[in-house]
Amino acid sequence: MTQVRIRHAQFRYLVPYTDAEGRDRLAIRHAIRNETVDLPRDSDYRRGLDSGAFFMDEEGEPETTEPEELDFSNHTQLVRWIRDEKPNAQTVVDAADDDPFKAEALLAAEHEANGSQPRKTVVEKLEAIMEEEE
Q1: Residue boundaries of the structural domains of the chain
Q2: Average pLDDT, whole number, for the chain?
Q3: Rounded to 5 degrees, what are φ and ψ at 30?
Q4: Is the pTM here over 0.85, yes or no?
Q5: SS3 of residue 13 by DSSP
């Protein structure tokens, strides 16, 4: 069994089990982005490696730990998080935790990470958090 942290939005894998009549079966499971799961079948692990479905460490091994705590005073870390981890829009907004300082830092990182194409939902919701303080 191999433990991995899912990079793709969704990853399908199979888990063996024995049904009530004693037959060996496979159940379909779905893991979502950032979820850490145990893959019991080598074929699912190899498929995930081939498709880039797992977060990998510097040595090319599957990464199983959660990402570091975000440092909102570190613009470069926030840009890398948005660019490399590709959190969905709601995850970015939730990271602001209704804090105008965090919202402003995340908004600047969103603009840099996505160039001329910042996500409209992220921009609108972060700006709304920033306006609440005024």
Answers
A1: 2-51, 75-133
A2: 88
A3: -125, 130
A4: no
A5: strand
